[in-house]
Structure formats: structure tokens, C-alpha cells
Amino acid sequence: MSKWIPKVLRRRPTTVGCVVLGLIALVQLFAAHGYNYIPLEDVERALLFAVNPKIGKENKPPCVYGSVINKTKTVDSTDLPKKFNEFMPNGIVSGSYMPENCRPLISVALLVTYRNRQNQLDVFVPYMHNFLRKQNIHYKIYVIEQEDDKPWNKGKLYNIGAKYAIADKFPCLILHDVDLLPLDESNLYACLGQPRHMSASIDKFRFVLPYDTLVGGVLAISSDQYVQINGFSNRFNGWGGEDDDLAARILKHNLLIWRLPPHMSRYSMLPHKQEAINADRHKIMQENLESSARDGMDTVRYESVNVKDQRLYTLIGVKL
Ligand code: NGS
């Protein structure tokens, strides 16, 4: 072989192929780290300022949010508390909290779907109250528990929770997995002008967003937009797909999926067993895309709902 052919190309074709594939994989790995987001300087302008009309009009100065967005404190996944033995519930009533020294301009309802993960709930609830009480927002935590042994139906649970939060006049809903803990204090729990996927950087995925249309994990959506898209499909039983179906609904209604910068969007996922996967999820997604039948928040059916106000959260127990 001529000595003018570069040394690397003089190797066997399989070796060259492997090197090329390796390089492509490496490029993809680094490219995947990036996703489109609202730059930090535009975040405040993108916020949806809306408060629950039920809160009193106290004569206090308006709360400020720039100071929250610009915080730099962050927690390392390995330093997360594993237990809360001495949690101080100051200021919390029925899972709800109001800032003490200022008048909030933002009210959000956290909807947490749940079944059979007491260990996670015991960490999640106090962690979130500690995290959210520093954000100058008015918020309330709702835990929506599936209290039967039927297949897990997250879409129905969110639809039911959303009905209650909307009836309670919350203008913004944050749909939250119980196993995700925010790590960055700058991650303000608020809706934006468009649906906002909040958990863009999760430690389990090496802080890489797996795909652009992912809305699972933590999603903030205004109550008006949730009504507009008619919430989730009720047809997904078992794990997976209902969130991708929701993303399709969002896009079909000409809404967008917005995100904040990666340094504000880090989460840690608590360990858990994989739920039973819904083998029909791809088929249902396809059927939903082609169907014009009404299916969503306004058609959700269930056997019973039982609401209990507890100190740290309002529990919505559901039998499907
Ligand atoms: C996709 C699932 C989504 C899920 C996402 C991340 O594959 O429902 O993985 O899952 N879509 C389908 O199965 C069609 S995670 O690893 O975070 O539990 O949200």
C-alpha cells in the first residue's frame, strides 16, 4: 500500500468502521447534552404571574422573583437527605404555604400522583416544603393516591387532581413525579407563557435530556392550557406513554414545550422498582393520534374520590 495513504486507513475496513462509529457516538453524546432553553436573562419575562383569587389582598410589598432565579446554591445528589427526623412545618396549613413578608404574585398547585411508595413520599414532602418555602410563591401540595390494585393510571390521577386544583382556583399546575427532587434553588416553581418541562436534567440520565418532546417527570402547565388540551388521555393503564401522548396534545394545540437553562433544571431521581410496563402504549398513542373521540379530563371516570386535608398535603384518594 502506498505510504501516502494515511496510516489509519491502511487498517482493515472493520477497524476503520468501528473507529468511525465510535466517533459518531462520542459526538452524539456531547450533542445530546444541549437542548433549547430560555436564556437566564429572559426567564423573568417568560413567567406567568397569576395568583389564586382566594388568597386575601394583604397590604404587603409584592414578592420579587429575580433573587430566586439568580440563586446559585445547588445540592449534590449524594448529599440529599435520606430521612427527615426533625422537619419544621412552620406556616404550612393543609399542604399550603404563603410567603410571610411579601405578597406573592405566583400561586401553584403541585399535583403528585402516588401509590405504594411511602419511603419516597416521606422524603419528597418535607424536602419540597423546605425547597418551596424559600421561593416567595404561594403553593399547595396535593397527593393523588390510587387506592386500588388496578393497573396504574397516571393520566386519570392527574385529570382528577387537576379538577380539584382548578376548582380551588389555582392558575398553574405542576405535575410532579414523587421520585424527583429539584437540586437547584434557582428552579422557581412557576408556570411560563407556554407549558414548561421542568425536569430537563436528571441524574439518572447523566443530566442529559433523553429526547426533545419528553414532558414526563415534572411539567408546569397553566390551568387554562390544561383545560384547553383536555388534560391527559385516560386510556393508558400501566407504565409509559401517557406523557408522550400529552406532548402530542400540547403540540396539536399549537402550544410549545419550553425549558429553563440546564443549571436550573437539575433533579435527582430516588431509586425504585420499574412499574409494570404497558405493552399497548405505542398502539394507544397511535390510535389517539388518529381518533377524534373525546377522551381527557372532562371524560375521566372513576369509582370514588375521597379528599382528606392533612397538615403537609391534601390527600385525594381515588378508586378507579
Ligand atoms: C419513554 C416513555 C415515557 C417515559 C420516558 C422516561 O420511553 O412514558 O421514557 O421514562 N415512553 C414510552 O414508553 C412510549 S423514565 O425513565 O423517566 O421513567 O416518561
Could you explain the architecture of this structure?
There is one protein chain. With 320 residues, this protein is an alpha/beta fold. It folds into two domains: 1-31; 38-319, Spore Coat Polysaccharide Biosynthesis Protein SpsA, Chain A (Alpha-Beta Complex). The protein contains eight helices and eleven strands. The strands form two sheets. Strands 1, 2, 3, 4, 6, 8, 10 and 11 form an eight-stranded mixed beta sheet that branches. It has a three-stranded mixed beta sheet with strand order 5-9-7. α7 runs parallel beside α8 (281-290). The protein is globular. Bound molecules: 2-acetamido-2-deoxy-6-O-sulfo-beta-D-glucopyranose. The site of 2-acetamido-2-deoxy-6-O-sulfo-beta-D-glucopyranose (NGS) has 6 residues, from α7. Residues 216, 240-241, 243-244, 281 line the site of 2-acetamido-2-deoxy-6-O-sulfo-beta-D-glucopyranose.
- Count of strand segments: 11
Within the CATH hierarchy, at the fold level, what is the topology of the largest domain?
Spore Coat Polysaccharide Biosynthesis Protein SpsA, Chain A
> How is the biggest beta sheet arranged?
8 strands, mixed
What is the CATH domain class of the largest domain?
Alpha Beta
Bound compounds, each kind once, are: 2-acetamido-2-deoxy-6-O-sulfo-beta-D-glucopyranose
Low-confidence stretches: none
End-to-end distance: 72 Å
Estimated share of beta-strand residues: 15-25%
Determine the fraction of residues in helical runs and give it as a percent range.
Answer: 25-40%
The overall average pLDDT, rounded, is: 92
CATH architectural type of the largest domain: Alpha-Beta Complex
